[in-house]
Amino acid sequence: MASLKDEILAKLAAVSGLDGVPLSATGKLSEIVANDGKVFFSITVDAAKVKAWESVRERAEQAVRAIPGVRSVMIALTAERAGAAGAQPAAQGSARPRPAPAAPRQGPAGIPDVGAIVAVASGKGGVGKSTIAINLALGLRDLGLKVGVLDADIYGPSLPKLLAIRERPQTASGTRLRPIVRHGLAVMSIGFLVEEETPMIWRGPMVMSALTQMLREVDWGTLDVMVVDMPPGTGDAQLTMAQQVPLKGAVIVSTPQDLALVDARRGIAMFRRVNVPILGIVENMSTFICPHCGTRSDIFGHGGARHEAERLDVPFLGEVPLAIDIRETSDAGAPVVASAPDGLHAKALRDIAARVRDGLGAESRPAPKIVIEA
Ligand SMILES: Nc1ncnc2c1ncn2[C@@H]1O[C@H](COP(=O)(O)OP(=O)(O)O)[C@@H](O)[C@H]1O
Ligand SMILES: [Mg+2]
Question: Whose CA is nearest to atom 23 of ligand 1?
Answer without folding.
Answer: 126
